Amino acid sequence: MASADGSEKLSTAILEAVDRRGTVNTLEFAAELGRDHQDVVGSMNSISAVGEILTTEQKQTNQWQLTDEGHSVVENGSHEAAVFNAVPEAGIAQAELMKLGANAKIGFSKAMSGGWIVIDKSDPAAPLVKRKVPTIVDTVQEHLRQVAADKASAVPEKELKDYKKRKLVQFVIVKTYNITKGPCFTKSLVKLETELLPEMIASGSWKTASFKPYNFDAMGSSLDCGHLHPLLKVRAQFRQIFLEMGFSEMPTNNYVESSFWNFDALFQPQQHPARDAHDTFFIKEPATCNNFPDDYLKRVHQVHQEGGYGSQGYGYQWKIEEAQKNLMRTHTTAVSARMLYKLAQQPEFKPAKYFSIDRVFRNESLDATHLAEFHQIEGVVADRNLTLGHLMGILREFFHKLGIRKLRFKPAYNPYTEPSLEVFSYHDGLQKWVEIGNSGIFRPEMLLPMGLPKDVSVIAWGLSLERPTMIKYKINNIRDLVGHKIDLKMVQQAPIYLIDAES
Ligand code: FB9
């Protein structure tokens, strides 16, 4: 019988056993030593890392193992023994016995069927549980001790099946190894150094030391650190695409916006349904904003009410109070408006390319793919004499960088762009045309009151961040992507998808 405490002694024991016996099975050897099987496999691998000292052949062995509850029975005795031991000489009410805990019921049933206890009904009003035998032998505990010692073969098959049903044991497939001598077998295992230390250099011991070979296939230790959410991984990809195309990121760090910048500046009329509380989250405190460029405000008021710049306007009574209402921005186009107004204030017009990727909020009905907020991606290009052709061209280039080559454009309507186009792409995976965005040329009634030159036109487009992310990570319900119920393992294990590599 071999014995071995400590990993070095375990390695020595394995080498000795292989030398004497020729073949050693790791599971049998672990049972013989009273060691954990994984310790023996670990020592075997450490020896193999040195060189071809051993030859190992993997086997699949079925093995009875104890469950956690099984280990508890080995420690504390079976549930039926606990019930028997809880029955006093005078007897006890069954309800009292049930207070032993969750296993009292099974213990009571097994103690009864084992003939250990009986219900004495001599007083029908107060039946008592009494001992039927003076002592018991806790066979279950003995059987489970044999399973723990890897001697399940000594336990009758019928009992093993009963213990399995009681979830005291489980039948598992265990990877074991048959070990034999390798081409470089030796019993004198040289201690392998795992690092070159200063004192080894100083003493010169490095000259005769044996170093453990690098295992370049070893996985790096998993870092217990933060992980980027898939949305942020995809945002980084879109940001990279915009930057490559020469766009600058807009400052979008204000979720709260005035109706003026979110709607009025975009020539969106004050009675437009999107401005209703059913579609927009208005802010109670502070409810209003009154800090607008005076002269610009007057021009916006004018163009809505009476028109101008060749437009007939909407002809309604424009109210400053509507424009002053604060809200959760419904689109990042509010930021685009601010940026274009700022561009128009420059002494001399210079073409500009802006982008934004940030949260927007809409008071809409929720479903599997829509929440009351999403991340809008928006691109804006301001230059002289831009046309629909430029817009379609830049959309092709943008989506081409996402790996999307088959595009279709469909005329659409937006309050602030004319013409407008919905963008579609043929999704091979879904076998259908999928809407992938919206776009258009900002109306003169939006641009000219800002003060932009008459020959300057601005093309823009938008899409959501959630839709491509859900497609890329094969997530069907938005609540599996965002919210307090998501599986954090999904976040930790989500790979970085190169969007174009996948589409
Ligand atoms: O993102 C959308 N679809 C999409 C995008 C990409 C994708 O995967 C590709 C691999 C890369 C797959 C799908 N859509 C826009 C279309 C639909 O999903 C739509 O049902 C949902 N839309 C949102 C708004 O819905 C309340 C997406 C969101 C959207 C729509 C319009 C704009 C922005 C976001 C805009 C705009 C705009 C227009 C003109 C000028 C400036 C901005």
The Rg value, from CA coordinates, equals 38 Å
Given the helix and strand composition, which structural class is it? Answer: alpha+beta
CATH architecture of the largest domain: 2-Layer Sandwich
Mean pLDDT: 93
Amount of beta strand = 15-25%
What CATH first level of the largest domain would be assigned? Alpha Beta
Fold and architecture overview:
This protein is an alpha+beta fold and about 500 residues long. The chain has 3 domains: about 1-65 and about 165-215, 2-Layer Sandwich (Ribosomal Protein S8, Chain: A, domain 1), CATH 3.30.1370; about 70-165, Arc Repressor Mutant, subunit A (Orthogonal Bundle); about 230-495, Bira Bifunctional Protein, Domain 2 (BirA Bifunctional Protein, domain 2, 2-Layer Sandwich), CATH 3.30.930.10. It has 20 helices and 16 strands. The strands form 5 sheets. It has a 7-stranded mixed β-sheet, sandwiched between helices. Strands 1-5-2 form a 3-stranded antiparallel β-sheet, sandwiched between helices. Helix 10 (about 200-205) links the parallel strand 6 (about 190-195) and strand 7. Helix 1 (about 5-20) packs across helix 3 (about 35-50), helix 2 crosses helix 3 and helix 4 packs across helix 8 (about 140-150). Bound molecules: ligand FB9. Ligand FB9 binds near residues 362, 434, 461 and 463.
